[in-house]
Design a protein that fits this description.
The chain is built from seven helices and eleven strands. The protein is α/β, with parallel strands linked by helices.
C-alpha cells in the first residue's frame, strides 16, 4: 500500500509540474474556429521516427506532460503511418487518479487511401476514431470500418494526393472541435507547418541519438516567427513550447 501511495504521489507531482508549465505556455485563441497545436518528440540529432519501426523517445516525465497536453485538447490527430507503425491509443491514461474524470480526446486519423486496420487499438479500445480519407478510397473498406462504428469522412485532396488540411479543420470545427493536437508523424507535421494553421508548437528533445535510418522534420518551412517561448526540463528531456506567428 505504501508503494502504491508513493507512486500516486510521484504521478501527482509530475502532473502538477506539467499542468503549471502548460498553463503558462499555452494560451488558446478565442477568435479562431479551431486552435491547432503541433507537438512531437525528437532526438538530439533531430530525428522523430525511424523508417517502418517504432521509436519511443519521451521519458516518463515528459510523457506525463504530453498526456496533460492531450487533456487540454478536444481531439488528437495523427497520420495513417503512425497508426500502422506505432498502433497508438491516443488517450490520457497516464493522468493521475485525481483526474480520472477527464474525458479522452477524439482520435483523428488522416488516411487518404483508407489503410486503417480493423484490428488497430484505436478501434478495439472503444474510443473510435474519425478517419478522414479522399474521394478515391476503397468502398468495401469504408463499409467494413463503418460497420465497426468508425466514422469515415471524405474531404478533397490536392494535386499531390494529400488530404486538404483546411477542409479537415473546417469539418472538425463544424463538429464542435475547438482545440486540435497534431502528434505526427513527420509528413503530417510538415504539412501542418506548411499550412500556416498551427498556433502552438511544442517540441520535446530527448538525450539520445538515432543516427542512420532516422526521420526528421528539418525540411519543414520557416515562414513563421516565434512570439513567445517557454522551456522546461522533465526528467532527462527538455520541452520547448512556442507560440507561432506567420510572416
Amino acid at each position: 500500500m505504501a508503494d502504491n501511495n508513493s507512486h500516486e504521489e510521484t504521478q501527482q507531482q509530475l502532473f502538477d509540474q506539467a499542468k503549471a508549465f502548460l498553463h503558462d505556455a499555452i494560451a488558446f485563441s478565442t477568435d479562431k474556429g479551431v486552435s491547432v497545436t503541433v507537438t512531437y518528440a525528437q532526438s538530439q540529432d533531430n530525428m522523430i521516427a525511424k523508417h517502418n519501426e517504432q521509436l519511443i523517445l519521451s521519458g516518463a516525465e515528459s510523457m506525463m506532460m504530453t498526456h496533460r497536453l492531450r487533456a487540454m485538447h478536444d481531439a488528437i490527430l495523427v497520420g495513417i503511418n503512425t497508426v500502422l507503425c506505432d498502433d497508438p491509443r491516443l488517450n490520457v491514461r497516464l493522468l493521475p487518479a485525481s483526474e480520472v474524470h477527464t474525458c479522452h480526446p477524439q482520435p483523428i486519423v488522416l488516411d487518404s487511401r483508407l489503410q486503417m486496420p480493423t484490428t488497430a487499438r484505436l478501434i478495439t479500445s472503444g474510443n473510435l476514431p474519425w478517419v478522414f480519407t479522399g474521394d478515391h478510397h476503397p468502398v468495401d473498406k469504408r463499409k467494413e470500418l463503418e460497420s465497426l462504428g468508425v466514422q469515415v469522412i471524405v474531404v478533397p485532396t490536392g494535386d499531390d494526393g494529400r488530404l486538404c488540411l483546411d477542409a479537415v479543420v473546417d469539418v472538425l470545427c463544424a463538429r464542435g472541435i475547438r482545440r486540435l493536437m497534431v502528434e505526427g508523424g513527420a509528413s503530417v507535421i510538415r504539412a501542418f507547418l506548411r499550412s500556416r494553421i498551427p498556433e502552438h508548437l511544442i517540441v520535446t528533445t530527448a538525450p539520445v541519438t538515432v543516427g542512420e535510418g532516422g526521420v526528421s522534420v528539418d525540411d519543414a518551412p520557416s515562414g513563421f516567427s516565434v512570439v513567445s517561448t517557454k522551456r522546461q526540463t522533465f526528467g532527462n528531456d527538455v520541452v520547448v513550447a512556442s507560440k507561432l506567428k506567420y510572416d
